[in-house]
Specification:
Length: 82
């Protein structure tokens, strides 16, 4: 599931795999392995990827279909005083 979400997010940005790898400061082959489901990112890398694409880790992992990150939810709650 992670690999499908990751490639879809990348495609939505219009960037290549190589461009995303550069922006995430990781080797191209490492990023390619994530998209091809040949390697799983550690927790720090997962956080980095989620922040880059501005999605929740739950969304990346397929636990949720809601893309919104917790930071965005917190900001909305502050603005609406929930």
């Amino acid at each position: 599931m992670f690999d499908d979400r990751l490639s879809k997010l990348r495609e939505d940005t219009g960037l290549s795999r190589k461009e995303i790898a550069i922006k995430l400061n990781m080797p191209y082959t490492t990023y390619l392995n994530y998209e091809n489901n040949e390697r799983e990112p550690n927790s720090e890398t997962l956080i980095q990827i989620a922040k880059f694409f501005n999605v929740s880790i739950d969304y990346l992992l397929g636990v949720s279909n809601i893309k919104t990150s917790n930071t965005e939810i917190s900001n909305v709650c502050k603005l609406t005083k929930l």
